[in-house]
Design brief:
The complex is a heterodimer of chains A (458) and B (462). Chain A is α+β, with helices and mostly antiparallel strands and 458 residues long. Chain A is built from 15 helices and 11 strands. In chain B, α13 runs antiparallel to α16. The chains are: A alpha+beta (458), B alpha+beta (462).
Chain lengths: 458, 462
């Protein structure tokens, strides 16, 4: 037996031998309440804290044109009081418990979380259960909060040239699929949103049968299941709106869009249509594409950094990303800024050449080995963070897979071959399914600091 | 799996690896800003590190380096961080940028290894190098698997980059170019302009207020970097923080091994004294939709006895997120801003107090009035008994979750070491928080947040 964990010496539980490197299966448990709510608990007793999350399967992809942004606006309003709690009281209770809380909205889901000392977990469950059913929405609170959301949009998007580029890219990348709309919503939709839009959203989607709870931390899963029954158990399930597939028609031809905004460096983002993960066991392409993303931009020694930033120096920055675990349509994005003296065309040619090389030659055994090592190390490091573990479970579940698949996902990555990477590079990276967005930098004529000194004017 | 970067701007090809895995925010829109959360976290990071029972061991290595160590055996990982008094404050204004370039070039060549070999070796063992530079210090951190072959290889690499960097001219040329491009880009961004101008304005004629320019970065030579490394990366001033799956004896060997070959320079360096600025407002034109506002002044040293009253007091003013007065008055009641906050960032010398917000430019005057009323009222009366109790409860009870990971504890170890806080700081923390009175808060704010020194910077002002 190894010595006690010094950092957790205050824990009665630290007497256990060092756990093996088993994945989440080892200490994760799930139950389902009669109202359809699923509860997933991962016991991690290194420190006397817990993360409590509630995930709703309702994100911006479930919105309708004209009310874009309502999923996110409702997320804000969830802190504005219930039949039992005044506006602002939720945050106050969490803070008083020594905790912190927040929420976030994605295209696929809306999630709420509290990180608290473990003794506060029952109270957190009570609070979340309350606002799952008893939210009071009124015109006055809505009127103030929608202004906050508009400020958020100005901050995140309107004054952020790269965010504008991605908003434009999504809007051409998808024509039928709801991923074409920004999560935060179009400004015009926000300006015309009413409190009833938010109320309708809440009434349609917020129900135990459209939610799941994830708890990670210093807890006993049986006790959490008991508390879940107590607080969430009495809530009523109700029928959910029909979800239509809204599949994107096949793209036939390159799409280009450009955005003018104040900036110095141009910026380029290229997105190819790619498959999402549907069957964890029988799918192959998503794993191969994931490995491809890692070979291009998974670590400091990956191809993009080595060849484009340090080698030819065509790029100031460059990246690649692919997320197959989602509800909607997936895509593979590469993006970057040309180095000073280089052009968007130079960068695009260099990025294409990197992909072409993999189409022609595949990847090396050393590169595949590195992907595996990175993947294993990341999983071990992830165990140093309760929040990262909770996010991993919640994210996989949001995409329609199970937390039970997490180990399989990692194992599958390790089985990908060079031929498979080469094959997906050939199959998916064609101009017919490519969309390209560029930032056309505009001078900021008013931005010159008046005086270079630090003098203060009175 | 890797997150798609659709909503995540500025992918960085050589990320300074953060210690926590996973970016939660790509393709996600949250209720409050990550940056805001980080600001709060950082403000409290240098402070709140107490938990009864964490056993911090401390010794001086034969090399002269100060070592802080926590043994924790649950996860097979090891984290090491080395801090030097090699921050931006120790560089002449004409060479501003030198401190950051020195730190970032360490891993571009060392011993017999070029930067591709260094990057490749790290990747092959699953290790990550990280770190950063602020006004006071330069940090280099390593996270590695604690299994012996990986750990040994990672530590050997860290020793080499710290002790025998070669600063290859070609890497310098490239990184200088990239830094200059970043500076030019930042000159177009309202948030970056505001941050820079605020630092310049509250620290006139002081190294804390000097920011890199195209000229100053262009002036940095390889000789400057090598000399700065020799004079500021010495064992004598080094703080070595170690946490993870190793024994005390192993930690002793690690600390010595990492520092025995460091250059001779270093030691207890302190920048020149800070002078307080005069009250005033700086307005900078920019076409942005929102005005970016910073209000503040140089406030406290990390060693100041008013640290705890200000930490507790700021919670109620603007540090406590949604329960703070600024958030309630500016955001919740009026919808003027998405992000509004205040923080103290204590440093070796007087670090800043800052109130910040962004608001639609047409209403910046109204928002400023509200901020002014909130601050004036708070300065005059201090926190209410309810606010004070709530602040203490959150800060004291919340300690557990601010130190529930090796990564978080590592930050605390290095702060204790670098700022010379007592080893009992952890155990004392709850009592120190609970002992703070409303009168102390009021008096501390009166001493450190004087109206005659408050500077306001507004970018995108009409």
């Amino acid at each position: 037996m190894k010595p006690l964990l010094a950092a957790c010496a205050m824990l009665a539980f630290a007497v256990s031998p060092a756990p093996t490197l088993a994945g989440p299966l080892a200490s994760t448990f799930e139950t389902r309440l009669a109202n359809g709510l699923r509860v997933i608990v991962k016991e991690d007793r290194r420190a006397p804290t817990a993360v409590h999350m509630v995930w709703y399967r309702a994100g911006s992809m479930d919105e309708k044109d004209g009310t874009s942004g309502v999923a996110h606006a409702l997320e804000h309003l969830m802190f504005k009081g219930t039949k039992n709690l005044r506006a602002g009281e939720f945050n106050k209770r969490v803070a008083e418990a020594g905790g912190r809380d927040n929420a976030f909205t994605s295209r696929d889901y809306t999630a709420y979380f509290q990180i608290v000392p473990r003794a506060a977990l029952p109270q957190m469950m009570k609070l979340e259960a309350d606002r799952m059913a008893n939210l009071t929405l009124d015109a006055k609170e809505f009127a103030a909060e929608i202004k906050v959301v508009m400020e958020e949009r100005r901050l995140r998007t309107d004054d952020n040239p790269h965010a504008l580029v991605h908003e434009a890219l999504n809007s051409v990348l998808f024509q039928a699929h709801p991923y074409r709309r920004p999560i935060i919503g179009w400004m015009d939709d926000l300006e015309h949103m009413s409190w009833q839009d938010a109320r309708d959203w809440y009434q349609q989607w917020y129900a135990p049968n459209n939610a799941y709870v994830v708890v990670v931390g210093d807890v006993d899963h049986r006790e959490v299941f008991r508390l879940a029954q107590k607080y969430y158990g009495p809530l009523k399930a109700h029928a959910l709106p029909q979800r239509k597939p809204q599949n994107e028609p096949e793209q036939a031809g390159i799409r280009r869009v450009s955005v003018k905004a104040p900036a110095k460096l141009p910026y380029l983002a290229m997105a190819w249509k790619a498959p999402r993960l549907k069957d964890v066991h029988s799918d192959r392409d998503p794993y191969a594409l994931d490995v491809l993303a890692s070979v291009l931009d998974g670590h400091d020694a990956s191809r993009f950094a080595r060849n484009l930033v340090r080698g030819t120096r065509v790029a100031q920055s460059v990246g690649a990303g692919y997320d197959p675990t989602l509800r909607g349509e997936a895509n593979f994005v590469v993006d970057g800024q040309p180095a000073e003296g280089k052009t968007i065309a130079d960068l695009e040619a260099a990025l294409r050449a990197e992909i072409k090389r993999i189409q022609d030659e595949g990847v090396s055994a050393e590169e595949l080995a590195r992907v595996k090592i990175q993947s294993i190390a990341a999983q071990i490091y992830k165990r140093d963070s309760l929040m990262a573990q909770a996010m991993e479970i919640g994210g996989v579940e949001a995409a329609g897979q199970s937390w039970r698949d997490i180990d399989t996902l990692l194992e599958k990555i390790k089985t990908v071959t060079s031929e498979e990477v080469q094959a997906v590079a050939r199959k998916y990276f064609t101009d017919d399914t490519l969309s390209i967005a560029v930032l056309d930098p505009q001078p900021v004529d008013q931005s010159k600091p008046k005086k270079p000194s630090g003098a203060v004017r009175h | 799996m890797k997150q798609n970067k659709l909503n995540a701007p500025h992918p960085h090809p050589r990320p300074r690896a953060g210690l926590l895995v996973g970016s939660l925010r790509s393709n996600i829109v949250g209720r409050s800003l990550t940056r805001f959360t980080l600001t709060c976290l950082l403000a409290s990071l240098t402070s709140t590190l107490a938990f009864a029972g964490v056993k911090i061991e401390h010794w001086i290595a034969p090399s002269g380096a100060k070592v802080y160590f926590v043994e924790t055996r649950v996860l097979p990982i090891l984290d090491v961080q080395i801090d030097f008094a090699a921050g931006t404050a120790f560089v002449p204004a004409a060479k501003s940028g030198l401190a950051s370039l020195t730190q970032s070039l360490l891993e571009t060549g060392a011993g017999d290894l070029d930067e591709e070999q260094i990057a490749g070796k790290l990747v092959d063992i699953g290790a990550r190098l990280g770190g950063g530079v602020d006004n006071d210090r330069a940090s280099i951190s390593l996270r590695t698997l604690a299994t012996k072959p990986e750990r040994e290889a990672a530590l050997e690499l860290l020793r080499t980059v710290l002790s025998a960097p070669t600063f290859p001219p070609s890497a310098l040329e490239r990184e200088r170019g990239r830094t200059i491009a970043s500076i030019r880009e930042a000159e177009t961004r309202p948030d970056a302009i505001a941050g820079k101008r605020f630092a310049m304005a509250i620290y006139p004629d002081h190294p804390y207020g000097v920011v890199p320019t195209v000229d100053s970065v262009s002036a940095v030579t390889r000789e400057d970097i090598a000399a700065f490394h020799r004079s500021h990366y010495g064992a004598k001033g080094a703080i070595v923080s170690i946490i993870g799956d190793v024994s005390r004896a192993e930690a002793e060997a690690i600390a010595q091994r990492l520092t025995e070959a460091l250059p001779a320079g270093g030691g207890d360096l302190v920048p020149p004294p800070v002078k307080k600025p005069l009250r005033g407002t700086i307005k900078i034109a920019h076409p942005a939709a929102q005005s970016h506002v910073h209000i503040g002044l140089p406030a406290i040293r990390r060693s100041d006895a008013d640290y705890f009253p200000l930490l507790v007091g700021n919670y109620s003013l603007g540090g406590g997120g949604f329960v703070s007065r600024l958030m309630k008055e500016v955001r919740e009641k009026r919808g003027y801003a998405y992000s509004v906050y205040s923080y103290f960032a204590p440093r070796k010398l007087e670090g800043p107090f800052e109130i910040g917000l962004q608001t639609k430019r047409e209403q910046v005057g109204e928002a400023l009035k509200v901020v002014d009323q909130v601050l004036t009222e708070y300065m005059a009366k201090g926190p209410t008994p309810q606010e004070l109790a709530a602040a203490k409860k959150n800060l004291a009870d919340g300690l557990a979750l601010r130190m529930d990971s090796n990564a978080k504890l590592l930050g605390y170890l290095s702060a204790i070491g670098f700022y010379g806080l007592p080893l009992t700081y952890l155990d004392d923390f709850p009592a120190k928080i609970k002992a703070v009175t409303a009168e102390q808060v009021k008096a501390a704010f009166a001493r450190h947040v004087k109206a005659e020194n408050l500077v306001t910077v507004i970018v995108a002002a009409d």
